[in-house]
From TrEMBL:
<dbReference type="Pfam" id="PF01434">
    <property type="entry name" value="Peptidase_M41"/>
</dbReference>
<dbReference type="GO" id="GO:0016887">
    <property type="term" value="F:ATP hydrolysis activity"/>
</dbReference>
<comment type="similarity">
    <text>In the central section; belongs to the AAA ATPase family.</text>
</comment>
<feature type="binding site">
    <location>
        <position position="465"/>
    </location>
    <ligand>
        <name>Zn(2+)</name>
    </ligand>
</feature>
<keyword id="KW-0482">Metalloprotease</keyword>
<keyword id="KW-0067">ATP-binding</keyword>
<feature type="binding site">
    <location>
        <begin position="239"/>
        <end position="246"/>
    </location>
    <ligand>
        <name>ATP</name>
    </ligand>
</feature>
<keyword id="KW-0645">Protease</keyword>
<keyword id="KW-0547">Nucleotide-binding</keyword>
<dbReference type="GO" id="GO:0004222">
    <property type="term" value="F:metalloendopeptidase activity"/>
</dbReference>
<dbReference type="InterPro" id="IPR000642">
    <property type="entry name" value="Peptidase_M41"/>
</dbReference>
<dbReference type="GO" id="GO:0005524">
    <property type="term" value="F:ATP binding"/>
</dbReference>
<feature type="domain" description="AAA+ ATPase">
    <location>
        <begin position="231"/>
        <end position="371"/>
    </location>
</feature>
<feature type="binding site">
    <location>
        <position position="537"/>
    </location>
    <ligand>
        <name>Zn(2+)</name>
    </ligand>
</feature>
<protein>
    <recommendedName>
        <fullName>ATP-dependent zinc metalloprotease FtsH</fullName>
        <ecNumber>3.4.24.-</ecNumber>
    </recommendedName>
</protein>
<feature type="compositionally biased region" description="Basic and acidic residues">
    <location>
        <begin position="1"/>
        <end position="16"/>
    </location>
</feature>
<dbReference type="Pfam" id="PF06480">
    <property type="entry name" value="FtsH_ext"/>
</dbReference>
Amino acid sequence: MSDAAPPRKDPDRPWRAEGTPDEPRRSGRLRGGRWWALFATAVVVFVLAYLGLHYLGRGNEPTISYTEFSRQVGAGNVARIYSKGDAIQGELKSPRANPEGGGDFTKFTTQRPAFAEDRLWQNLSNHGVTVTARPVVQERSFVANALISLIPIVVLVAVWVLVSRRLGGAMPGAGGLFGRRAPPRPVGLRPGTERTTFADVAGIDEVKGELDDVVDFLEHPDVYRRMGAKLPRGVLLSGPPGTGKTLLARAVAGEAGVPFFSASASEFIEMIVGVGASRVRELFAEARKVAPSIIFIDEIDTIGRARGGSSSMSGHDEREQTLNQILTEMDGFSGSEGVIVIAATNRADILDPALTRPGRFDRVVTVSPPDRGGREAILRIHTREIPLAPDVDLTQVARVTPGMTGADLANLANEAALLAVKRKQGEVTGAHLSEALEKVQLGAERTLIMPEDDRRRTAYHESGHALLGMLQPGADPVRKITIVPRGRALGVTMSTPEVERYAHSEEYLRGRIIGALGGMAAEEVVYGVVTTGAENDLEQVTNIARGMVGRWGMSERVGRLSALPSDAQQAYGLSAAPQTLDVIDAEMRRIVDECYAEACRKLRDHRGRLDALAQALLETETLEEADAYRIAGITRLAKDGEE
């Protein structure tokens, strides 16, 4: 279900484009005229370097008068000369003082007057002067000077790029000095690469059905216009992380064959106020140029939180300006541009009402974790390129993974493939998938050597969980018991339902509390004391009891009302009157105490079964479902709603 978004092409454009027409002129373009600034600087550096090399490369040879040259020839002090036209370069046999000042010289240059009739060649021959074919004073050529002049430009560009990377990915400028992001990654969608479509999405068919009309509108806009129908300007995808919201948005664009612009809302925010709003304007302008198109904004709650509740003293901070610009751009849609905005969030309840009103994001689509059939379809998608052994039963894997999202299932398939590679096997087997599931849900195994007393206590602790799960009517069946340390736990009892549960009865919740308290109860029944191993169990018990009393009306004293919010862990003590909170606390204690007393009673009544399970765990360390029920002497009966 999860799929990486295409990488963005420009660090100043925090969105990524997929399926847009090729525009080479835009790749790597710097905003604010920075390319022109870099080009102008390079030209100035080149000219200065070339002129400096040209004049410095001519050497320090003095220019003497032709009269002095003739005098030195007559004195036999000229060793060799080179002539090009009337210009003469030469070298003396011994240094002489320059009559025009400047010290002694050996090499020189001079100019022969056009009117001179001094039989120069005859004088040179008579005094043994060598006339060479190569210049006496060597000067660099134009090409050499030009190439050497490029060295400062290369250094300049290297420093420019280094500084831009150190400052966060943009060229130095007003915004680049204040937190620009990493340099652009390589372009993602290559020519010929297949785009994501609905064939790559599984497990959320009802959501795909709600988005089918979006695809149909993008493919056949004229049909809707003739009927006077207008598509919703925005579609908000709401659901837990990993349920495939980003993948759905990409699939809509791929199915319709339209350009897809995706960005995370946090990437619009900068320290400089106004940068985010300008980026939003540019994003919508780009989408309109290639319409019909889709704009996808991930984690929109980053900038779309209800206004007035932020810690900023000013109502015009960067986050609110960016949100206002999004609202303004969506208001500017007439419905004929063919630009659809899709946003995703995990917290639709905290979004600003102006964002979710009709005319903006006027269609809210809830993306929930898949059911059993959906999980099986998702597993088949993520194992298409994984060689599976004949013993792999994806239906069974889907049955024992309730509550897992598409991202979780993709991770499960990948972990199983990694295990097969690690063990140098050519296929992924059912054992690989089972071990990968344990690793994903419980953590990796730890090589921990426990004292025998702690090991025996852990065996009784896990046997208490398992036995109460087997005895309690309506409880989830026990799948596996192990005392192999995993993650932070010294042992684990896995219990998963056979069918999806969408509503829980009071009896079922009490059964979960009894099962969670089974470990602590077993330690008290066997050893007469309890240990710190029940910490996680008590957290689970507290959350269930709090929900029963404060949210779900399962207490006569509190009544049929919701006294605590859904995020009661953070807001506990702030949402109800003190007297109500005292009653909630007393009722929670009553329910937990009753469940604990029942757990202890059942374990005392079935002490033989508890000892048998603990002894088997000490011998084998891990018990599968069938072995656990057989050792406990309990027939595995189908629970309510099981197949």
